[in-house]
Every structure is written in C-alpha cells, then in structure tokens.
Design goal:
By secondary structure, this protein is an alpha/beta fold. Helices cover about 40% and strands about 15% of the residues. It folds into 2 domains: about 375 residues, Glycosyltransferase (Alpha/alpha barrel); about 240 residues, Rossmann fold (3-Layer(aba) Sandwich), CATH 3.40.50. Strand 18 and strand 19 form a beta hairpin.
Length: about 625
C-alpha cells in the first residue's frame, strides 16, 4: 500500500494522460475502423463470416472503448455483431454443427452488447451460444473437445475461446454452476498440459493417446507454442474478473495464473522483450519472435498486476514486452495508419493436411501482417499499457458502492431479478461501470455493500459511494438513512475514510433522511430542480469545470441534468458553482474527506461516449475525480 504523501507526489509527477493524446493503440483502433468496416476482415479466410478471429478483434475494440470512452469503438463492435445477429437472436453463419470452441469466442461481444443495451436479441443469441457450448463433446475427464473433428482432444486455444464467455454468462444470468465448469476446464489444462520441467503448456492433449502427434505416455503434443500459452494467460485474467471472490476454486485459478506468469517471465527474450514462436527454443534455427503471443502475454501480465492477481514486478515484464512490440512489429501503412506485422496466421494439430506439432511445423507456419487476432491482442495489450503508469498507486485500496440505500431491482432478459442503478457491474445507461473503471486505472479494487453500513462493513473500505438514495416510487421497500448508519459512517470518515455523496433531483432521490448524514459534515442537499434539458439540447446541461480547482487538476466540459443544489455550512467548501447554485462541495472531517455532488453525473449514459457529442469529456473528469479521491486516502 502506497502512503498518502507518496501517492500525491507520484500523481503530481505523472497524472493519467489526457484521453485525446495520440498513441499507437488509438491509431490502430482508428485504422481498424477504416480498414475493416463493420468487422469484415480482409485477412481472414472467409471475410464477413462468424469467426473467433473477428471475435478477438472485437475484444480489442471493446478493451479500447473501456479505457477511452470513444463511442465509435462501441459502434464498431455493434455493427460487426449486428451483421450476424438477427432480431430474433439467430446467428447467421454460426457453425453449431461443428461443435467447435472457436464458434463460442464472439459470444463475448454479444454478451457485452446485451449488458450495455439490454436488447433481448443479444440475450437470445448469447443463450444460443451457451447452449451450444453445453452440448460440446467431452473427454473422459470432462474436458471440452476442441472440435468434433478432433475427438478426445483439449487444445489450450480453447481456454480463451470458451471460458471467458462462459464466466461472463454465468455472472450475467446468475448461473453459479457455470463458474464450476470454467474452473474445471482451466484446471484440467493446468494439471494435464503443463510441462513440469519448463512450466509451459503444450499445445494439445489427447486423453485417448491415439493421435500420432500425442506422446503415448502423457498424450501431449511435442512443443510449447507461444500463442497457445498466450491464449491461456488471457483466459485466466479475463475469467477472474467474473469469478466470485468466494468461489472454492478461485485460489487454484489464481495459482494457475501465477505459474503461467512465471513461465512467461522465464522465457521472455532478454534482448527484445518478446516471446518466441516456440517458447523454450529461443535462438534456434528458424525460430522467431511472434507478435500475437507477445501482445497476449503483455496484456495478461499488465492486467494481472492492475487487478491485483499478480505481483507488481510483472509490470516491468509487460513494459519490456510492449516496448519490444513497438520496435519490432508496429509499422506505418500507405493510408497513414498503422499495421501489425509478425503474426502467425494459424497453427493446429492433426487434420488434413496433417500437422505434426513438431518444432519444424511451428516455425514453418505462414506469418502475415494485420492478422485480426494479432491486432485484437495488440489493442488489448495497448489498453492495459495505457494505464500502466498509475496502476500501482491504488494497490491495496478499495472503493465500495452502496447497494443498501439505493437497492433498486429490475428483471433481466432471462426473467431474473437483479440489482441495478449506480452499480459497478452495471454496464447499462444507469450503471457506474465506467466510473468503476476510472478507479481501476489506479489499481483500486471495487466492492459493493448490500447491507446497512456498520463499523464491520466499512472496515478496510477506503472510498464509500452513496448515490441517489431510493424513494418509494423507485423502490417500494426503500432503506432510509438512520442514526445508527450515520454514526457508523461519521466515525469511519473521522478515522480517515473518503465519503462520496451523490444526490439527484426530487423525482429520483430521497432528501429528508439523506440530509441527516450530509448535515453532519456541513453539506445540505436542497431539492431545487436545476439543469432541465429538453431533448438533445445538451448545452442546457453543460457544466464547465475549470482547471486546478481543489478537486480537478484539468479543465473539463461535462454534463448534468435534473439536479438539486447544495447549501454549505460549518467548514464545508464550495468546489463548483453554476451561477448562485453550488453543484459540488467538500469537507475535511477528522482524518477523512467528504465529496458531495448534486447528481450521480458519472453514470454510463453520459460517460461512455455513446450519447453525448465529443466535446464532453465526462469520463476524463471521472478519472480526474478518482485521482483526487485517491489522494485523500490514508
């Protein structure tokens, strides 16, 4: 954990860069949109057909959207998926009869679109993919066959093709058994496919030991292919995002990631920072550093550190990889964009023509420019490395959002009841997913408080966010602020906690009880009705934040609509005003801090770049706010 004074100094020395700043990842995303409209990838064998390669590209575009809030990235993913998914949820060109794990991968983009838009067609399509996966043939140990044409075989590629999708589906549609399945598949690979001498995973495992390429004793293929290990590393860090903290096998998945990271470090080329096509044969005749695998390891290691899954030392490993990728594989193109060189087009085992999985086979495979899965992995790696300068500053810290005073529920497309409204895991317009990502840029962990605040609930919490407490018209069983909760929160703030109070207008939030908390700190929300916005006249809700306020270091043009006002007293300080109206205020209380605002203004609808014109930079303001909140932590 970094001390407050140290955090402040580091942030002032190197704050998060402005989102508009040009970087190679942004240049690649823009190139993709020009080069491959709607996800029709010219370098694929069948451009415009449902494929895992396009799916990985869309994963990269989604990752870039999450860190930049550039709405055109989201629009690109949606257009790409919509050319396949019909209004009834059917999927054009989905190869269901092939029972191939490759067909599952693009389901991740389908799920993302459901979570953001809540459109039923994406749920129906995701369920179709999930049902197809559940019908996948299995090995005797219960592992998914990679494809029906490869009986009794697990390929490490399949870890990324299937498990992140299944984990996200399980989290989205309340299927806890899905996490058991995910853990089982990943850990079968860890226990049966890892070479104990090198720590690397072999590309394939034939449990029946019938394939000519399979070792008759172990069933393993001969070599450790870099991209296979890269697929596994990415699968692990992405699955952990969804797997519950209390899942009985989460620790084993983390251990598998630890072993995978250690082997990646051991076989990183010390000169270039890259990874060789056959990982443990660096420098041998015919071998070469490979782009997609190098991007995959860079992504997995950097994200593993940011999310607290891996030791901080792996950030240096990721940085060496990223530097090597820039030097070796990123080139300009004739259209003024960028291209990624050095990706092996494909590799497999068996089949026709026969692939023996030998060293000579892997180093003889074709290398191309602008391979979709390589570009997707590059975008994912870049999305992480763009956050790398700040990820250590909030390690060990936790930001918790309230789910007690605001505990509204809705019914999802599967007919299930779920919490929503200003929650970290809510990607829809109402959610705080982007605000949560602003905290995560600093390595801060996220949590949710589903019970009334007590000393025990607030123990270990650094930031506690209460947004728009419920009223009966929004929640027929609201939980109002009471004395016991107020006492617990006040004691926690005085001991060093950072409290965020976000009100709303009278039609959406409760004032009487909520003010019993704010009044303790000299902050009183007044149910005035300001910032009325008619239709798309966004200028009516425009809010200018000047640079170098007590909270914000940069100037921002943001947006608020239908808000209340604040009256300050007893040492509270105005931060932002609009004429005579106070929109934001702070208070120093004991060792702690209170930040108050008249609206939950950083929710997704006006933060994720899909709705507001480009001149609004609310996501950048949310990052700026998160940085300030981090500086207040003790």
């Amino acid at each position: 954990m970094v001390g407050k004074a140290c955090v402040t100094m580091l942030l002032l020395m190197g704050s998060a860069p402005a989102l508009a700043q040009r970087d190679p990842t942004r240049a690649m995303a823009d190139t993709v949109k020009r080069m491959w409209p709607a996800g029709v990838v010219s370098t694929e064998n069948k451009p415009g057909a449902w494929s895992y390669e396009e799916g990985v590209l869309l994963d990269g575009m989604t990752a870039e959207w999450w860190v930049t809030a550039d709405g055109s990235d989201f629009a690109y993913v949606r257009a790409a998926v919509d050319k396949y998914v019909g209004a009834d949820g059917t999927i054009k060109s989905l190869g269901a009869q092939a029972h191939s794990l490759d067909e599952i991968e693009m389901g991740r983009s389908v799920l993302m679109l459901y979570r953001v838009t809540r459109a039923p067609k994406y749920y129906k399509a995701a369920k179709l993919i999930r049902d197809q996966l559940m019908a996948q043939p299995r090995t005797a140990s219960g592992g998914f066959w990679h494809k029906e044409i490869y009986p009794n075989q697990m390929w490490v590629d399949g870890a990324y093709m299937a498990e992140p999708f299944l984990a996200e589906y399980a989290a989205t549609f309340q299927e806890p058994a899905g996490f058991d399945e995910v853990a089982k598949q990943l850990l079968l690979m860890d226990s049966h496919m890892r070479d104990l001498k090198t720590g690397l995973l072999r590309h394939g495992w034939d449990e029946s030991r019938q394939m000519a390429w399979a070792d008759k004793g172990t069933g393993l293929s001969p070599e450790a292919w870099a991209r296979a290990n890269g697929w596994y590393a990415m699968a692990l860090v992405d699955v952990l995002d969804w797997m519950p903290a209390n899942h009985p096998r989460r620790g084993e998945v983390l251990e598998a990631l630890s072993k995978t990271a250690a082997s990646a470090l051991a076989y990183q080329d010390r000169s270039s920072g890259l990874w060789w096509q056959v990982m443990d044969r660096g420098g041998q005749a015919g071998n070469f550093p490979e782009a997609s695998a190098s991007c995959m390891f860079t992504y997995a290691l950097a994200k593993g550190v940011r999310m607290g899954y891996l030791a901080s030392s792996y950030l240096n490993t990721a940085q060496r990889g990223w530097d090597g990728i820039q030097r070796t594989f990123v080139k300009g193109n004739d259209a003024g964009g960028v291209r990624l060189t050095g990706t092996v087009k494909s590799a497999g085992l068996g089949g026709k023509p026969y692939r023996a999985g030998t060293y000579a086979y892997y180093v003889g495979e074709r290398v191309i420019d602008n391979d979709a899965k390589g570009v997707g992995a590059f975008l994912m790696a870049g999305s992480e490395m763009g956050q790398s300068k700040t990820v250590m500053l909030g390690q060990g810290r936790t930001a918790v959002v309230d789910a007690w005073f605001n505990s509204q529920k809705r019914v999802n497309a599967a007919g299930q009841t779920e919490l929503f409204h200003y929650k970290w895991d809510d990607d829809s317009d109402n959610g705080f997913a982007f605000f949560g990502r602003a905290f995560q840029r600093y390595g801060i962990q996220l949590g949710e408080a589903k019970t009334a605040p007590t000393a025990a609930v607030l123990k270990g919490v650094d930031v506690y966010v209460i947004a728009s407490p419920d009223i009966p018209s929004k929640n027929p069983h609201p939980h109002f602020m009471d004395k016991e909760s107020g006492d617990a929160i006040q004691a926690w703030v005085e001991a060093g906690g950072v409290l965020v109070l976000m009100a709303n207008d009278a039609a959406n939030t409760e004032f009487e009880h909520f003010n019993t908390l704010g009044d303790r700190f000299g902050i009183h929300f007044t149910p005035a009705d300001r910032k009325k916005v008619e239709g798309n006249h966004y200028e009516q809700g425009e809010v200018k934040i000047p640079a170098d306020t007590s909270v914000f270091t940069k100037a921002h043009t943001t947006f608020m609509k239908d808000v209340c006002t604040i009256a300050v007293s007893r040492g509270a300080t105005k931060v932002l005003t609009d004429g005579d109206d106070v929109l934001m205020a702070t208070a120093a209380v004991g060792k702690g801090t209170v930040y108050a605002v008249v609206d939950p203004w950083v929710y997704n609808e006006y933060t994720d770049g899909r709705k507001l014109p480009p001149r609004y930079d609310t996501y950048a303001a949310a990052i700026d706010l998160s940085e300030w909140l981090l500086r207040q932590m003790h």
